[in-house]
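sry for the spam today, last one i promise. struct tokens for design, 182 residues
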């Protein structure tokens, strides 16, 4: 169980009933309710915790891909309204590919994702890659599953994302999305 979630459950006295239930992997991609409990597994990939992610990060053994979605500029803002994207604190050195973790993605988004993966891995599908988002976010699970299906050989999934990373007091840095976005 995830350290943050486990601590909350232990403190609330709910640990036993919730630990007994697991979230199964879907046959395909998660298509809705992306902020919900996630499975403990990723077929074809390796699930890691923040400590293992930090070890991999320190060793420089893998590319890190952040897939947190980015909110679009609301279409009904009054003319002249200044829109500022929310800053994203992520694992240092990670590439941010927002919106690639939805269950169904447009061809243009898939191409953006492929370009980002190629850049992050040096166009080497055997280079390890770590996918993450936030705790209990299916976006990173979907993105990791997609990379496995595209032939990436060593895919790691950090289900606790930057929430678990920051809980361990590991460093974060502000990042901008990989450009050009679709």
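last one done:
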């Amino acid at each position: 169980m995830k350290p943050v979630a486990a601590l909350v459950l232990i403190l609330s006295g709910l640990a036993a009933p919730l630990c007994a239930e697991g979230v199964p992997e879907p046959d395909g991609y998660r298509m809705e309710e992306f902020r919900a409990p996630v499975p403990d597994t990723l077929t074809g990939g390796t699930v890691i915790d923040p400590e293992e992610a930090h070890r991999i990060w320190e060793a420089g053994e893998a590319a890190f891909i952040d897939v947190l979605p980015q909110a679009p500029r609301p279409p009904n803002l009054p003319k002249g309204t200044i829109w500022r994207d929310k800053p994203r604190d992520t694992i240092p050195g990670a590439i941010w590919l927002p919106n690639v973790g939805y269950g169904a993605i447009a061809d243009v988004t898939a191409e953006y994702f492929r370009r980002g993966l190629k850049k992050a891995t040096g166009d080497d599908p055997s280079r390890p890659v770590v996918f993450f988002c936030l705790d209990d976010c299916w976006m990173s699970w979907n993105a990791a599953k997609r990379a496995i299906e595209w032939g990436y050989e060593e895919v790691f999934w950090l289900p606790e994302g930057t929430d678990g990373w920051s809980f361990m007091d590991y460093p974060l840095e502000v990042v901008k999305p990989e450009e050009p976005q679709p």
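The chain is about 35% helix and 10% strand. ok im logging off now
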